[in-house]
Fold this protein.
Amino acid sequence: MMHIRCPWCGLRDESEFVCGGTSHLIRPPLGASDEVWGEYLFFRENPKGLHRERWRHLHGCGQWFNVSRDTVTHEILAVYAMTDPVPP
Amino acid sequence: MPKNYSVWSLLRGAVSGQRHWPAAWREAAPKPRYDVIVVGGGGHGLASAYYLAKNHGINRVAVVERGWIGGGNTGRNTTIVRSNYLYPQSARLYDFSLRLYEGLAKELNFNIMLSQRGLVLLAHSRHDLDSMSRWANAMRMNGIEAELLTRDQVAARVAGLDMSPQARLPVLGGFAQPRGGTARHDAVAWGYARAASALGVDIIQNCEVTGFIEENGRVAGVSTSRGAIRADRVGVAAAGHSSVLAKLAGLKLPVTSYALQALVSEPIKPILDTVVLSPGTGAYVSQSDKGEIVIGAMLDLFPSYAQRGSFAVQQSIIAATLELFPSYGRLRMLRQWAGIVDVVHDSSPIIGPTPVPGLYINCGWGTGGFKAIPAGGWTLAHALATGKSHPLAEAFQLERFYTGRLIDEAAASGIAH
């Protein structure tokens, strides 16, 4: 079981959280073409390795935050706020 | 040409201590050039190669596999076959697959141990009952047999279910697909490999694709850990690793990879003679011919390429299984594993050409790839041979993510995603 460090509640079990998928996706303008809109909605890098993703402490404080995580080892490399820039 | 398996070859072997069996397929080294390369030696890749040779007469085909054949999701599923889908496009495709499975042992001369023991889905609430009526009726509209079951019929059909008044997961009824069941997963891979090899297909194991060769804006082959292999057309059937391979060709897919786990118990005497699904809890249970209770879980709902699965999901699926079947509480579990599945937004596959000329894909089966092996292979072979998508696969193209014409089976198939 992964342990995730919620920025507000500290280190908690994975089962208290839900993953909200890839982070840092930028919503295209309303006039975007079907291709651009489809890419935004459905197409993902889906990396084998480092992934920036959103998590929510559902059964806790209910807050959203960002996580840098390795999708092979599940190691959590960074936890940062929703509005923070992408860590190096 | 491998020996034809028959009762006579078995009897002859009985005299000689069964030591006369030749290797079922040729272990091939890569040649410099083929007509078609299939990347991925799982069920879908091997079936694609077989149908390329069988249906289209194209036998200069290589199946390139990073590890060993059938060692990915083909060896990591719960062996269930069914075609209980809601929408006509899905029903046609999956029932075609099930019909191919029904004739596959004879077709391949390899016992795939298909056991159509039926599939029972449990309704735990009034809402479940209503949605299952809709589901079963949709199946009938699509010409696939489905049988609505009352509470008493479920009790009579499924041994060991907790039907007591204080059951934590009360069973109010359900429905069955009588033609659903199980097949031997390894035999499906090995049967296709043997039959494809006999038709001239090269099966190349321990050969990892590290890139695509591009010429004049087309894919012209693959570079691998065992050198370059050229071909006019390349098909990718790599399940949870589809995105990794697509990236090598500069392509992004509408796919996210998740771990889907399962576990089996020690073998016990026959106790369960059907496949039981509880869509409400995500648990599905069957008993293998060897006697193991096979328990499938829902997805670990975060992106993962780790073939192990999280303990949290394991715990919840065991809890649900024990609420359904209290008598399994004393079973010792022998093995637990996860496969990396390729989930797309509408839980329907993608089979056909890609924006990269010469590159074709078969992916997006998500949690249900095993049951679709014959149809996935048949339709990818068609696309590779003709350059066009198969009529059964026309609705399952990449364009649907731009046009919005999704086939949203996530809810329809009732499988927790």
